[in-house]
Design a protein that fits this description.
The structure is a homodimer. Chain A has about 220 residues and is mostly helical. Helices cover about 70% and strands about 0% of the residues of chain A. In chain A, helix 5 runs antiparallel to helix 6 and helix 6 crosses helix 7. Chain A starts with 14 loop residues before the first helix and ends with a helix. In chain A, about 30% of the residues are buried. The mean pLDDT of chain A is about 85. The interface between A and B is large, with 39 and 40 residues.
Protein backbone atom coordinates (compact mmCIF):
# COMPACT_ATOMS: atom_id res chain seq x y z
CA UNK A 1 0.00 0.00 0.00
CA UNK A 2 2.72 2.46 0.97
CA UNK A 3 5.78 1.11 -0.77
CA UNK A 4 7.94 3.98 0.58
CA UNK A 5 7.46 2.94 4.22
CA UNK A 6 10.38 0.94 5.64
CA UNK A 7 9.37 -2.68 5.99
CA UNK A 8 11.34 -5.44 7.69
CA UNK A 9 13.38 -7.41 5.20
CA UNK A 10 11.99 -10.94 4.94
CA UNK A 11 14.66 -12.13 2.55
CA UNK A 12 15.63 -15.79 2.72
CA UNK A 13 18.52 -16.35 5.07
CA UNK A 14 20.41 -19.57 5.67
CA UNK A 15 19.88 -21.21 9.06
CA UNK A 16 23.23 -19.88 10.26
CA UNK A 17 22.58 -16.37 8.94
CA UNK A 18 19.17 -16.29 10.56
CA UNK A 19 20.50 -17.54 13.86
CA UNK A 20 23.25 -14.96 13.79
CA UNK A 21 20.75 -12.21 12.88
CA UNK A 22 18.56 -13.16 15.85
CA UNK A 23 21.54 -13.22 18.19
CA UNK A 24 22.67 -9.82 16.98
CA UNK A 25 19.21 -8.39 17.64
CA UNK A 26 19.14 -10.04 21.05
CA UNK A 27 22.60 -8.74 22.00
CA UNK A 28 21.54 -5.29 20.95
CA UNK A 29 18.52 -5.49 23.25
CA UNK A 30 20.57 -6.97 26.12
CA UNK A 31 23.00 -4.05 25.68
CA UNK A 32 20.28 -1.62 26.76
CA UNK A 33 18.09 -3.66 29.11
CA UNK A 34 18.59 -6.22 31.85
CA UNK A 35 18.17 -9.79 30.49
CA UNK A 36 14.91 -10.40 32.36
CA UNK A 37 13.37 -7.41 30.61
CA UNK A 38 13.96 -8.77 27.13
CA UNK A 39 11.20 -11.03 25.74
CA UNK A 40 11.22 -13.23 22.66
CA UNK A 41 8.58 -10.86 21.27
CA UNK A 42 11.04 -8.00 21.56
CA UNK A 43 13.66 -9.99 19.69
CA UNK A 44 11.16 -10.92 16.97
CA UNK A 45 10.18 -7.29 16.59
CA UNK A 46 13.76 -6.02 16.57
CA UNK A 47 14.78 -8.59 13.97
CA UNK A 48 11.61 -7.98 11.93
CA UNK A 49 10.55 -11.63 12.06
CA UNK A 50 7.63 -13.58 13.52
CA UNK A 51 7.60 -14.84 17.07
CA UNK A 52 7.19 -18.50 15.97
CA UNK A 53 10.35 -18.14 13.92
CA UNK A 54 12.30 -17.01 17.01
CA UNK A 55 10.86 -20.00 18.88
CA UNK A 56 11.87 -22.33 16.07
CA UNK A 57 15.50 -21.25 16.52
CA UNK A 58 15.34 -21.15 20.30
CA UNK A 59 12.78 -23.76 21.35
CA UNK A 60 14.06 -23.45 24.94
CA UNK A 61 12.69 -19.90 24.95
CA UNK A 62 14.24 -16.93 26.67
CA UNK A 63 16.76 -18.91 28.69
CA UNK A 64 18.16 -20.61 25.62
CA UNK A 65 18.27 -17.35 23.70
CA UNK A 66 20.05 -15.64 26.57
CA UNK A 67 22.65 -18.36 26.85
CA UNK A 68 23.26 -18.37 23.10
CA UNK A 69 23.58 -14.57 23.09
CA UNK A 70 25.93 -14.73 26.06
CA UNK A 71 28.07 -17.34 24.37
CA UNK A 72 28.24 -15.23 21.23
CA UNK A 73 29.19 -12.15 23.30
CA UNK A 74 31.82 -14.23 25.14
CA UNK A 75 33.33 -15.28 21.78
CA UNK A 76 33.40 -11.67 20.66
CA UNK A 77 34.96 -10.61 23.96
CA UNK A 78 37.67 -13.26 23.65
CA UNK A 79 38.67 -11.78 20.30
CA UNK A 80 39.66 -8.64 22.19
CA UNK A 81 42.55 -10.61 23.64
CA UNK A 82 43.98 -11.61 20.23
CA UNK A 83 47.18 -9.68 20.02
CA UNK A 84 50.30 -10.53 18.02
CA UNK A 85 53.23 -11.68 20.14
CA UNK A 86 55.57 -8.92 19.01
CA UNK A 87 56.87 -5.61 20.33
CA UNK A 88 57.03 -4.47 23.96
CA UNK A 89 54.64 -6.17 26.39
CA UNK A 90 52.81 -3.28 28.03
CA UNK A 91 51.68 -1.70 24.73
CA UNK A 92 50.23 -5.12 23.81
CA UNK A 93 48.27 -5.08 27.05
CA UNK A 94 47.13 -1.51 26.30
CA UNK A 95 45.83 -2.50 22.88
CA UNK A 96 43.92 -5.48 24.30
CA UNK A 97 42.42 -3.19 26.97
CA UNK A 98 41.40 -0.68 24.29
CA UNK A 99 39.44 -3.39 22.51
CA UNK A 100 37.97 -4.63 25.79
CA UNK A 101 36.79 -1.14 26.79
CA UNK A 102 35.25 -0.64 23.34
CA UNK A 103 33.36 -3.89 23.88
CA UNK A 104 32.19 -2.74 27.33
CA UNK A 105 31.17 0.60 25.86
CA UNK A 106 29.08 -1.06 23.14
CA UNK A 107 27.46 -3.69 25.35
CA UNK A 108 26.73 -1.44 28.34
CA UNK A 109 23.75 -2.65 30.35
CA UNK A 110 23.88 -6.25 29.18
CA UNK A 111 27.53 -6.40 30.15
CA UNK A 112 26.81 -5.13 33.67
CA UNK A 113 23.86 -7.44 34.15
CA UNK A 114 26.00 -10.33 33.07
CA UNK A 115 28.95 -9.62 35.31
CA UNK A 116 26.96 -8.48 38.30
CA UNK A 117 24.75 -11.55 38.32
CA UNK A 118 21.47 -11.46 40.12
CA UNK A 119 19.55 -11.82 36.89
CA UNK A 120 16.70 -14.32 36.85
CA UNK A 121 18.25 -15.97 33.81
CA UNK A 122 21.56 -16.47 35.61
CA UNK A 123 22.43 -20.14 36.11
CA UNK A 124 25.54 -22.17 36.72
CA UNK A 125 25.81 -22.51 32.91
CA UNK A 126 25.90 -18.76 32.34
CA UNK A 127 28.40 -18.38 35.20
CA UNK A 128 30.57 -21.03 33.53
CA UNK A 129 30.57 -19.00 30.28
CA UNK A 130 31.74 -15.88 32.12
CA UNK A 131 34.37 -17.83 34.06
CA UNK A 132 35.55 -19.28 30.76
CA UNK A 133 36.28 -15.78 29.46
CA UNK A 134 38.23 -14.94 32.63
CA UNK A 135 40.26 -18.12 32.24
CA UNK A 136 41.05 -17.35 28.61
CA UNK A 137 42.09 -13.80 29.57
CA UNK A 138 44.48 -15.17 32.21
CA UNK A 139 45.94 -17.68 29.74
CA UNK A 140 46.52 -14.94 27.15
CA UNK A 141 48.32 -12.76 29.68
CA UNK A 142 50.54 -15.60 30.88
CA UNK A 143 51.34 -16.61 27.33
CA UNK A 144 52.32 -13.02 26.39
CA UNK A 145 54.46 -12.86 29.51
CA UNK A 146 56.14 -16.05 28.26
CA UNK A 147 55.23 -18.01 31.39
CA UNK A 148 54.49 -21.71 31.01
CA UNK A 149 54.32 -23.00 34.59
CA UNK A 150 52.82 -20.12 36.61
CA UNK A 151 53.09 -20.55 40.38
CA UNK A 152 50.12 -19.85 42.61
CA UNK A 153 51.27 -16.32 43.57
CA UNK A 154 51.56 -15.25 39.97
CA UNK A 155 48.24 -16.87 39.04
CA UNK A 156 46.49 -15.20 41.94
CA UNK A 157 47.91 -11.81 40.99
CA UNK A 158 46.82 -12.13 37.36
CA UNK A 159 43.32 -13.29 38.33
CA UNK A 160 43.06 -10.48 40.85
CA UNK A 161 43.97 -7.94 38.22
CA UNK A 162 41.40 -9.39 35.79
CA UNK A 163 38.71 -9.07 38.47
CA UNK A 164 39.88 -5.53 39.16
CA UNK A 165 39.54 -4.73 35.45
CA UNK A 166 35.97 -6.09 35.46
CA UNK A 167 35.08 -4.15 38.58
CA UNK A 168 36.52 -0.93 37.24
CA UNK A 169 34.67 -1.27 33.95
CA UNK A 170 31.37 -1.78 35.80
CA UNK A 171 32.09 1.33 37.87
CA UNK A 172 33.07 3.13 34.66
CA UNK A 173 29.65 2.32 33.15
CA UNK A 174 27.97 3.45 36.40
CA UNK A 175 29.85 6.73 36.32
CA UNK A 176 28.80 7.67 32.79
CA UNK A 177 32.05 6.39 31.32
CA UNK A 178 34.28 8.76 33.26
CA UNK A 179 37.28 9.03 33.08
CA UNK A 180 38.01 8.76 29.34
CA UNK A 181 38.66 5.22 28.14
CA UNK A 182 42.33 6.05 27.40
CA UNK A 183 42.91 7.29 30.92
CA UNK A 184 41.21 4.25 32.44
CA UNK A 185 43.31 2.01 30.20
CA UNK A 186 46.62 3.62 31.25
CA UNK A 187 45.60 3.45 34.89
CA UNK A 188 44.77 -0.27 34.55
CA UNK A 189 48.12 -0.99 32.91
CA UNK A 190 49.88 0.79 35.76
CA UNK A 191 47.82 -1.17 38.29
CA UNK A 192 48.92 -4.36 36.53
CA UNK A 193 52.58 -3.49 37.00
CA UNK A 194 52.01 -2.33 40.60
CA UNK A 195 50.20 -5.54 41.59
CA UNK A 196 52.92 -7.71 40.04
CA UNK A 197 55.55 -5.62 41.82
CA UNK A 198 53.98 -6.33 45.22
CA UNK A 199 53.92 -10.06 44.47
CA UNK A 200 57.52 -9.90 43.23
CA UNK A 201 58.65 -9.08 46.79
CA UNK A 202 57.84 -12.63 47.87
CA UNK A 203 57.83 -14.65 44.64
CA UNK A 204 60.99 -15.13 42.52
CA UNK A 205 59.03 -16.07 39.38
CA UNK A 206 57.07 -12.82 39.51
CA UNK A 207 60.24 -10.91 40.38
CA UNK A 208 61.91 -12.13 37.19
CA UNK A 209 58.85 -11.05 35.22
CA UNK A 210 58.81 -7.58 36.72
CA UNK A 211 62.50 -7.22 35.91
CA UNK A 212 61.78 -8.25 32.31
CA UNK A 213 58.89 -5.77 32.06
CA UNK A 214 61.17 -3.08 33.38
CA UNK A 215 63.89 -3.88 30.79
CA UNK A 216 61.16 -3.87 28.17
CA UNK A 217 60.12 -0.33 29.09
CA UNK A 218 63.71 0.93 28.95
CA UNK A 219 64.27 -0.41 25.41
CA UNK B 1 13.15 -46.04 75.80
CA UNK B 2 16.91 -45.50 75.52
CA UNK B 3 17.42 -42.43 77.66
CA UNK B 4 21.21 -42.51 77.10
CA UNK B 5 20.92 -41.94 73.32
CA UNK B 6 21.48 -38.34 72.27
CA UNK B 7 18.17 -36.77 71.28
CA UNK B 8 17.66 -33.35 69.72
CA UNK B 9 16.80 -30.77 72.37
CA UNK B 10 13.16 -29.74 71.96
CA UNK B 11 13.31 -27.13 74.69
CA UNK B 12 11.05 -24.09 74.33
CA UNK B 13 12.78 -21.28 72.54
CA UNK B 14 11.49 -17.76 71.99
CA UNK B 15 10.54 -16.87 68.43
CA UNK B 16 13.77 -14.93 68.03
CA UNK B 17 15.89 -17.71 69.52
CA UNK B 18 14.25 -20.31 67.31
CA UNK B 19 14.71 -18.20 64.22
CA UNK B 20 18.32 -17.61 65.05
CA UNK B 21 18.83 -21.34 65.74
CA UNK B 22 17.37 -22.22 62.32
CA UNK B 23 19.53 -19.61 60.60
CA UNK B 24 22.64 -20.91 62.33
CA UNK B 25 21.85 -24.44 61.16
CA UNK B 26 21.16 -23.16 57.65
CA UNK B 27 24.40 -21.16 57.51
CA UNK B 28 26.29 -24.19 58.68
CA UNK B 29 24.79 -26.23 55.82
CA UNK B 30 25.39 -23.43 53.28
CA UNK B 31 29.03 -23.35 54.45
CA UNK B 32 29.56 -26.85 53.11
CA UNK B 33 27.13 -27.12 50.21
CA UNK B 34 25.94 -24.90 47.37
CA UNK B 35 22.64 -23.17 48.27
CA UNK B 36 20.62 -25.19 45.75
CA UNK B 37 21.72 -28.39 47.44
CA UNK B 38 20.31 -27.44 50.83
CA UNK B 39 16.65 -28.34 51.43
CA UNK B 40 14.32 -27.29 54.25
CA UNK B 41 14.36 -30.94 55.31
CA UNK B 42 18.11 -30.72 55.78
CA UNK B 43 17.73 -27.62 57.92
CA UNK B 44 14.99 -29.27 60.02
CA UNK B 45 17.20 -32.30 60.53
CA UNK B 46 20.30 -30.27 61.37
CA UNK B 47 18.37 -28.15 63.86
CA UNK B 48 16.57 -31.21 65.29
CA UNK B 49 13.11 -29.77 64.62
CA UNK B 50 10.15 -30.74 62.45
CA UNK B 51 9.83 -29.66 58.83
CA UNK B 52 6.51 -27.84 59.48
CA UNK B 53 8.26 -25.77 62.13
CA UNK B 54 10.89 -24.64 59.61
CA UNK B 55 8.06 -23.76 57.21
CA UNK B 56 6.29 -21.78 59.92
CA UNK B 57 9.36 -19.58 60.29
CA UNK B 58 10.08 -19.41 56.56
CA UNK B 59 6.73 -19.74 54.78
CA UNK B 60 8.41 -18.58 51.56
CA UNK B 61 10.40 -21.83 51.62
CA UNK B 62 13.98 -22.25 50.53
CA UNK B 63 14.29 -18.89 48.85
CA UNK B 64 13.19 -17.03 51.99
CA UNK B 65 15.44 -19.12 54.19
CA UNK B 66 18.38 -18.50 51.89
CA UNK B 67 17.83 -14.77 51.87
CA UNK B 68 17.46 -14.64 55.65
CA UNK B 69 20.61 -16.72 56.10
CA UNK B 70 22.44 -14.50 53.62
CA UNK B 71 21.33 -11.37 55.43
CA UNK B 72 22.47 -12.83 58.74
CA UNK B 73 25.85 -13.77 57.20
CA UNK B 74 26.09 -10.27 55.72
CA UNK B 75 25.52 -8.76 59.18
CA UNK B 76 28.16 -11.00 60.65
CA UNK B 77 30.55 -10.12 57.83
CA UNK B 78 30.01 -6.41 58.40
CA UNK B 79 31.08 -6.85 62.01
CA UNK B 80 34.51 -7.81 60.67
CA UNK B 81 34.92 -4.18 59.62
CA UNK B 82 34.31 -2.80 63.13
CA UNK B 83 37.67 -1.48 64.15
CA UNK B 84 38.42 1.29 66.63
CA UNK B 85 39.64 4.50 65.00
CA UNK B 86 42.95 4.55 66.82
CA UNK B 87 46.56 3.69 66.12
CA UNK B 88 48.26 3.47 62.73
CA UNK B 89 46.01 2.86 59.72
CA UNK B 90 47.55 -0.17 58.05
CA UNK B 91 47.48 -2.35 61.19
CA UNK B 92 43.77 -1.49 61.48
CA UNK B 93 43.27 -2.75 57.93
CA UNK B 94 45.27 -5.88 58.79
CA UNK B 95 43.07 -6.64 61.78
CA UNK B 96 39.88 -6.20 59.73
CA UNK B 97 41.33 -8.50 57.06
CA UNK B 98 42.18 -11.10 59.71
CA UNK B 99 38.56 -11.17 60.81
CA UNK B 100 37.38 -11.24 57.20
CA UNK B 101 39.61 -14.20 56.33
CA UNK B 102 38.44 -16.05 59.44
CA UNK B 103 34.88 -15.50 58.23
CA UNK B 104 35.77 -16.79 54.74
CA UNK B 105 37.53 -19.77 56.29
CA UNK B 106 34.47 -20.67 58.39
CA UNK B 107 31.86 -20.13 55.67
CA UNK B 108 33.80 -21.78 52.82
CA UNK B 109 31.49 -23.19 50.16
CA UNK B 110 28.50 -21.01 50.98
CA UNK B 111 30.70 -17.95 50.72
CA UNK B 112 31.98 -18.94 47.27
CA UNK B 113 28.54 -19.83 45.98
CA UNK B 114 27.29 -16.49 47.16
CA UNK B 115 30.02 -14.37 45.61
CA UNK B 116 30.34 -16.33 42.43
CA UNK B 117 26.64 -16.20 41.67
CA UNK B 118 25.15 -18.69 39.31
CA UNK B 119 23.12 -20.24 42.07
CA UNK B 120 19.46 -20.97 41.33
CA UNK B 121 18.50 -19.01 44.44
CA UNK B 122 20.40 -15.96 43.25
CA UNK B 123 18.13 -12.99 42.59
CA UNK B 124 18.45 -9.24 42.39
CA UNK B 125 17.62 -9.19 46.13
CA UNK B 126 20.49 -11.47 47.07
CA UNK B 127 22.79 -9.47 44.81
CA UNK B 128 21.67 -6.30 46.60
CA UNK B 129 22.62 -7.84 49.97
CA UNK B 130 26.12 -8.66 48.70
CA UNK B 131 26.49 -5.22 47.14
CA UNK B 132 25.42 -3.72 50.44
CA UNK B 133 28.33 -5.42 52.21
CA UNK B 134 30.74 -4.09 49.56
CA UNK B 135 29.38 -0.58 50.03
CA UNK B 136 29.72 -0.78 53.81
CA UNK B 137 33.30 -2.04 53.42
CA UNK B 138 34.13 0.93 51.18
CA UNK B 139 32.54 3.38 53.64
CA UNK B 140 34.52 1.92 56.53
CA UNK B 141 37.78 2.23 54.63
CA UNK B 142 37.08 5.84 53.62
CA UNK B 143 36.07 6.72 57.15
CA UNK B 144 39.27 5.22 58.60
CA UNK B 145 41.25 7.13 56.00
CA UNK B 146 39.47 10.26 57.23
CA UNK B 147 38.01 11.03 53.80
CA UNK B 148 34.58 12.64 53.67
CA UNK B 149 34.18 13.67 50.03
CA UNK B 150 35.95 10.96 48.04
CA UNK B 151 36.53 11.78 44.37
CA UNK B 152 35.78 9.24 41.68
CA UNK B 153 39.41 8.09 41.31
CA UNK B 154 39.72 7.31 44.98
CA UNK B 155 36.33 5.60 45.09
CA UNK B 156 37.19 3.48 42.07
CA UNK B 157 40.51 2.44 43.62
CA UNK B 158 38.90 1.42 46.91
CA UNK B 159 36.13 -0.52 45.16
CA UNK B 160 38.69 -2.17 42.93
CA UNK B 161 40.70 -3.28 45.92
CA UNK B 162 37.58 -4.66 47.64
CA UNK B 163 36.78 -6.70 44.54
CA UNK B 164 40.38 -7.87 44.44
CA UNK B 165 40.08 -8.99 48.07
CA UNK B 166 36.94 -10.96 47.24
CA UNK B 167 38.55 -12.55 44.20
CA UNK B 168 41.65 -13.51 46.10
CA UNK B 169 39.66 -15.06 48.91
CA UNK B 170 37.70 -17.18 46.41
CA UNK B 171 40.96 -18.29 44.83
CA UNK B 172 42.33 -18.95 48.31
CA UNK B 173 39.39 -21.30 49.03
CA UNK B 174 39.93 -22.99 45.65
CA UNK B 175 43.60 -23.52 46.41
CA UNK B 176 43.03 -25.26 49.74
CA UNK B 177 43.66 -22.06 51.70
CA UNK B 178 47.19 -21.55 50.46
CA UNK B 179 49.13 -19.36 51.25
CA UNK B 180 48.63 -19.02 55.02
CA UNK B 181 45.98 -16.47 55.99
CA UNK B 182 48.64 -14.16 57.52
CA UNK B 183 50.64 -14.10 54.31
CA UNK B 184 47.55 -13.44 52.20
CA UNK B 185 46.58 -10.63 54.59
CA UNK B 186 49.97 -8.91 54.36
CA UNK B 187 49.96 -9.25 50.58
CA UNK B 188 46.47 -7.68 50.41
CA UNK B 189 47.55 -4.76 52.60
CA UNK B 190 50.55 -4.18 50.33
CA UNK B 191 48.29 -4.38 47.26
CA UNK B 192 46.09 -1.73 48.88
CA UNK B 193 49.00 0.68 49.23
CA UNK B 194 50.29 -0.13 45.72
CA UNK B 195 46.89 0.49 44.09
CA UNK B 196 46.48 3.80 45.92
CA UNK B 197 50.02 4.78 44.90
CA UNK B 198 49.20 4.30 41.20
CA UNK B 199 46.08 6.45 41.56
CA UNK B 200 48.08 9.07 43.50
CA UNK B 201 50.08 9.80 40.33
CA UNK B 202 47.01 11.42 38.76
CA UNK B 203 44.79 12.33 41.71
CA UNK B 204 45.84 14.91 44.35
CA UNK B 205 43.32 13.63 46.95
CA UNK B 206 44.78 10.12 46.75
CA UNK B 207 48.29 11.55 46.70
CA UNK B 208 47.68 13.29 50.04
CA UNK B 209 46.35 10.04 51.47
CA UNK B 210 49.35 8.02 50.33
CA UNK B 211 51.64 10.64 51.89
CA UNK B 212 49.70 10.35 55.16
CA UNK B 213 49.91 6.53 55.07
CA UNK B 214 53.61 6.82 54.50
CA UNK B 215 54.06 9.19 57.47
CA UNK B 216 51.97 6.79 59.49
CA UNK B 217 54.32 3.89 58.74
CA UNK B 218 57.38 5.96 59.68
CA UNK B 219 56.00 6.86 63.12
Amino acid sequence: MTPAAPTPAYRRLSVEERRSQLLTSALDLFAHRAPEEVSLDDVAEAAGVSRPLVYRYFPGGKQQLYEAALRSAADELQHCFDEPREGPLLPRLSRALDRYLTFVDEHGTGFSALLQGGSVVETSRTTAIVDGVRRVAAEHILSHLGVTGPGSSLRMTIRMWITAVEASSLIWLDEDKQPQAEELRDWLVEQFVAMLTVTARRDPQTEALVRALDEDVRH
